[in-house]
Amino acid sequence: MGANIQQHGPFEVQEQREHLMCANIVGAMSCHESAVLVIGIAHLQSMCVKLKNNFQVRAYAFGPELL
Length: 67
Hints:
Elements: H1 11-28, H2 41-51
Helix pairs in contact: 1-2
């Protein structure tokens, strides 16, 4: 049996999705000072870049050894 390999993207759809996610997070955080946001690894780096314009951001990723 072969590997299940799927193409990631299209990038334009991913970018639109993340801009909407960012706007929703900014709106939801308007009355909070801190939060923990759990997102998938495919969004981690690019969402941190988007969110750092509005927040102090720290990112952490865990590996499967913690499961």
